[in-house]
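[RESIDUES AND BACKBONE]
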Amino acid sequence: MSLQRKLRALAPGLVFLATLAAIAWLLRSGLALEWLSEDWSARIDRDVRGKGAAGELLFLAVGGLACALAVPRHFVSFLGGYAFGFGPGTLLALAATEIGCALTFFYARLVGRPLVSKRFGARVRRIDDFLAANPFAMTLLIRLLPVGNNFATSLAAGVSRVPAWLFLLGSLVGYLPQTLVFALAGSGVEAGAGLRVGLAALLFLVSAAIGIWLYRRYRHGRTLGEEVDEALDEQSPA
């Protein structure tokens, strides 16, 4: 194989690694989160709230990209509730989170699949094994859990054999409970804060308990990793 062909074959993997390295640097340096959190209420008030369709599209674009770059989806949901209120904020935050999930999934599948499958085969096989029997239901279960990394899950699923539409649909449904919770908390920043935030905290605990119960009930011996199991054990009632 000529040098040119070798470089062409390696290019997707190199681009993938470079992208991950850039994301890791941004997160470690704190620049990404600092930019998103710095005077966030003023940014939302100026550019999103009361701007109609333009504000909604801006929120979807920035929120989707943020989730694709590993910014916690709960933060996006909170901002959605603050900017648009509970109902519309939930729907827009859910859409932004799903956009981010799809971007990460298809980026991994189209660009990083050969390299990641080769170098991180054990992790990919674990996701494959967990999702294989019922991709929709098991994806939904993963998204209901109060622990785990949304970005890493989408990345691993992208390089697995799981059908894209089942993974994305399961993610969409599984995202809903916690999106509701954090959008509710965000909507209570200015009015009824104590009651809404308290209710959001209660709903989060209920959602987490259901997710943990479903994981233990239906995983049938499969696991997402020792670190996930240990974290769930720590969060379970004594």
Q: What stands out?
A: The chain has one domain: 11-235. The chain is about 80% helix and 0% strand. The mean pLDDT is 79.
